[in-house]
């Protein structure tokens, strides 16, 4: 399930590009609406409204999930805009550097400590981002925005004491009315809204986009419980690798020497980070065996 979710996320640019004629915010509104319908409907079929009432009864948790809903909506909006605007390669960079941004947030917010290898990985990745900013003339804002928004989303979901899919359902409730409002605004301003403004093919694709939002998240939430986190850490690179391949080979986006060096530094940082994580996990397992 987990590997399948990452494969879907990696190949999804091939789907979103089919909707290039639709404004990015309209795509986003349909994504929130139909993804929410699927998640909320599935949770209600499983256990009525208890999943929602138990969260709303805890104001702090409800507020945290409202914040996470805003962050994931911002992340989705930026990603869709990047894909339909021809920036798939830079979007993939965002998800390559996301694990390292998670590490920095752990240090700055949660008070976690890094060893030398982890600090070295962060420094190498920072050099890669700085290289891209200097040589391309501007920082990779799309990549940084995607990595930052998703890392902050992960932080809130880590702190929120709620089951993964239930939390996603509450987020969907928060995003439901804004998605309806966006579609109504598009309907009244001639930029497309609900159905009828686009050909039937586009309408069906917009609904399918909701399924492509909800189903991988549900599969990931359940699959991640059944495999070690170290394996999840390696599997997460499937998605940006496939996104990069889509950008370069399917959409013909440039990937010259400057980007190759910048990406190369970030890949080296990720390799250092992954090897260090594997080493520390192995030492922890050896310590547990010795204790027993």
UniProtKB/TrEMBL annotation:
The chain crosses the membrane at residues 30-49, 61-81, 93-110, 117-134, 140-156, 168-186, 198-222, 229-252, 258-278. InterPro entries: EamA_dom, EmrE-like, RarD. Keywords: Cell membrane, Membrane, Transmembrane, Transmembrane helix, Transport. SUPFAM superfamilies: Multidrug resistance efflux transporter EmrE (SSF103481). GO terms for cellular component: plasma membrane. It comes from the Bacteria. It is a multi-pass membrane protein. Its main location: membrane. This is EamA family transporter RarD. It comes from Coralloluteibacterium stylophorae.
């Amino acid at each position: 399930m987990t590997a399948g979710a990452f494969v879907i996320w990696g190949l999804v640019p091939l789907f979103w590009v089919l909707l290039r004629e639709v404004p990015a915010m309209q795509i986003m509104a349909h994504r929130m609406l139909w993804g929410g319908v699927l998640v909320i409907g599935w949770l209600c079929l499983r256990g009525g409204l208890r999943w929602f009432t138990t969260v709303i009864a805890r104001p702090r948790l409800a507020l945290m999930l409202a914040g996470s809903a805003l962050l994931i909506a911002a992340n989705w909006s930026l990603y869709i805009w990047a894909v339909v605007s021809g920036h798939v390669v830079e979007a993939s960079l965002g998800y390559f550097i996301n694990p390292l941004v998670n590490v920095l947030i752990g240090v700055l917010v949660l008070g976690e400590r890094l060893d030398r290898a982890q600090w070295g990985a962060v420094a190498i990745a920072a050099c890669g981002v700085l290289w891209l900013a200097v040589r391309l003339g501007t920082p990779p804002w799309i990549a940084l925005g995607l990595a930052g928004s998703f890392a902050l989303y992960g932080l809130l979901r880590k702190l929120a004491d709620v089951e993964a899919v239930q939390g996603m359902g509450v987020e969907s409730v928060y995003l439901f009315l804004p998605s309806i409002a966006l579609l109504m605004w598009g309907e009244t301003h001639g930029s497309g809204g609900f159905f009828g403004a686009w050909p039937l093919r586009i309408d069906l694709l917009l609904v399918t986009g909701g399924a492509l939002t909800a189903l991988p998240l549900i599969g990931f939430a359940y699959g991640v419980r059944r495999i070690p986190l170290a394996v999840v850490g390696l599997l997460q690179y499937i998605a940006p690798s496939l996104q990069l391949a889509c950008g370069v080979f399917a959409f013909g986006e440039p990937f010259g020497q400057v980007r190759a060096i910048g990406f190369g530094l970030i890949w080296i940082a990720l390799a250092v980070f992954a090897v260090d994580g594997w080493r520390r996990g192995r030492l922890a397992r050896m310590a547990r065996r010795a204790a027993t």
